[in-house]
Design brief:
Layout lengths: L2 E5 L7 H10 L3 E6 L12 E4 L5 H14 L4 E4 L2 H14 L6 H8 L1 H10 L7 E5 L4 H5 L6 E5 L9 E3 L2 H17 L11 E6 L4 E10 L2 E10 L12 E4 L5 H18 L4 E10 L2 E8 L19 H9 L13 E7 L5 E7 L1 H5 L4 E6 L6 E2 L10 E7 L2 H13 L2 E5 L13 E5 L1
Parallel strand pairs: 1-2, 1-4, 2-3
Antiparallel strand pairs: 5-8, 6-7, 6-8, 9-10, 9-12, 11-14, 12-13, 14-18, 15-17, 15-19, 16-18, 19-20
Helix pairs in contact: 2-3, 3-4, 4-5
Length: about 425
């Protein structure tokens, strides 16, 4: 029975889908994760507790384990674990992406430098040290610009600045975020902040699979909400794209060129692009699959999920034709409207009753403290819809969203006084 080493960060939405795919393939699964983890590991078999920030130490642990229990494939499910997966696969002689290529894809500065040298359109950018003088940096950038960390994903820490004053505020805010997340202490790339020209236009996401450096597109998602700032909270993804076939092909060609320039060779690739007056600009390229629970929108031949395709590919198992089933599909990542403690989410039955809605999952739990973007690192939950056309899907998602009311109470101080807590609710 083949054995899969699945690397999971200590908190992730991705575990369930990959574990279910492995179960369908009758695999032995070993989970590599941190010593304190929220992932559902109880029924998954072997667990290796790894320090995901110490590659040498993790490699020794995995190699010792593999001598007793041979490993046939390694998969990382996010940007950080993808780098470790490439390194571990290299150490064990398994198919993998070059480690340097995955590291470059994870780092927004390195990625932009590599792509720019190859003539692939990326926004003009500058990088500044987190502990530097933001007022001096503000004089060096063109406006409007976008300020963001070199690492992190899902729009965490991404802000638009229209002038020097907004730049200083955004720069300092990103610095506080990186410090509060504890990243500055152990990750050199968290000590730098990137500022790049704002590129107007529609944003899309491409999901693909690389084999021998050749990109096979799996799905192209439109993001129908304009992402113009001041923050860039992603909400709705819908596939198939409504862009013209010519523009879609330009995006796929650009993605393939970007993968080749970075040196990515094997496994999933997720890209984010801006389309402005038929020009395609690369915003992100990652050596991983799409995040959150967005992959649940994708069903392939013979009912295979995206995660099953990825695992089959890693194990060099036969793959069916990589064509999606016919229906349009989409997901809404439910935003957190404001910070505080979650009381309840009302209207869930009404949202589920909207025609086309296939699933509503509220991942936040009552009593949990919620933090909205740009500081937040998670969503309230997810809506999934299917329909005959992308327009039908988008309409279903928006209507279901309108059915929900989120009730959030102000987070209490360390020693709350009786009656000091105020409550608000918001329909969105």
């Amino acid at each position: 029975m083949p054995r899969l080493l699945l690397l999971l960060p200590t908190a992730t939405y991705r575990a369930e889908a990959f574990l279910e795919a492995a179960r369908r393939l009758a695999l032995s699964v070993t989970i590599g994760t941190g010593p304190v983890s929220d992932v559902p590991i109880a029924s998954s078999g072997d667990v290796l507790h790894l320090d995901l920030h110490r590659l040498d130490e993790a490699t020794r642990t995995v190699l010792e384990f593999s001598h007793r229990h041979p490993i046939d494939a390694v998969i990382g499910v996010d940007d950080g674990t993808a780098v470790m997966a490439a390194s571990l696969a290299e150490a064990m002689g398994l198919p993998h992406n070059p480690v340097a290529a995955v590291a470059a894809a994870r780092n927004k500065r390195l990625m932009r430098e590599v792509l720019s040298r190859e003539g692939i359109p990326v926004p003009r950018h500058l990088v500044f040290p987190l502990n530097g003088d933001a007022k001096e940096f503000a004089k060096q950038v063109a406006y409007p610009c976008v300020v963001k960390p070199l690492i992190l994903s899902a729009s965490c820490g991404v802000m638009r600045a229209n002038d020097e004053e907004e730049f200083v505020a955004s720069f300092n805010r990103v610095g506080r975020l990186l410090t509060n997340l504890g990243l500055v202490a152990f990750d050199e790339q968290a000590r730098w902040i990137l500022a790049e020209n704002f590129v107007p236009g529609r944003e899309v996401a491409l999901e693909g699979l690389l084999t021998g450096g050749t990109l096979r597109p799996l799905a192209l998602f439109d993001k129908p909400d304009l992402l113009d700032g001041p923050f860039f909270e992603e909400t709705i993804y819908v596939t198939p794209s409504r862009l013209s076939s010519e523009v879609q092909q330009e995006i796929i060609t650009c993605a393939g060129r970007a993968a080749k320039a970075l040196g990515l060779q094997d496994g999933p690739m997720h890209g984010e692009f801006r389309v402005h007056e038929k020009d395609v600009w690369v915003i992100e390229v990652a050596a991983r699959s799409i995040g959150g629970r967005c992959s649940r929108t994708l069903d392939f031949s013979a009912g295979l999920s995206l995660e099953e395709l990825i695992i089959r590919h890693a194990l060099r198992m036969p793959l069916p034709a990589l064509t999606r089933q016919g229906e349009a599909a989409g997901v809404m990542m439910l935003p957190i409207p404001y910070g505080g403690r979650l009381c309840e989410v009302r209207g869930q039955a009404g949202a589920r009753a909207v025609p086309g809605i296939e699933e509503l999952t509220v991942t936040a739990v009552p009593g949990e403290d919620l933090v909205p973007l740009p500081e937040g690192t998670r969503y309230l939950g997810f809506l999934l819809a299917r329909g005959e056309t992308p327009e039908d899907v988008e309409q279903s998602l928006r209507e279901a969203h309108r059915q929900l009311t989120v009730v959030i109470t102000a987070s209490p101080p360390p020693d709350p006084l009786p009656g000091s807590q105020q409550s608000r609710s918001m329909s969105f």
